[in-house]
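Thread: quick sanity check before group meeting

JM: Hey all, I'm pulling together slides for Thursday and realized we never actually wrote out the predicted structure for the chain we discussed last week. Dropping the sequence here so it's in one place. If anyone has concerns about the input, flag it before I start.
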Amino acid sequence: MRKLVWAYHQSGESLRQFSSAHGISRSSLYYWIQRFKESSIAEVPPEERVPSKFISIDLSTGSNPEPSYIIINKPCGTQIKIPL
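JM (edit): ok, ran it. Output follows.
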C-alpha cells in the first residue's frame, strides 16, 4: 500500500481519479493516505530509501563495578561524556 500511496502523491490526480484508475475505493485509498500521513516514509518509495548509517553497539559493563562512560571527542575540542 505504501507504493500506491506514494504513487498517488506523485500523480497530481484527485483522489477520485486515482482510485478509479487503480481499482481501489476512494475510502480505502483515503484510509491508507491518513494512516501513512504521520510518517514521511509514505512519500519515499522503498527502492529509493537510504539505509540507516547507525550501527548498534553492545555497552554492557559485565561484572565491572566501576562507572563506565562513552566519551565523544569532537574536532573542536569539546568532550561529551555519557554515563552508562
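AS: nice. The two ends are 41 Å apart (CA to CA). Helices lie at 2-11, 15-21, 26-37.
JM: adding both to the slides.
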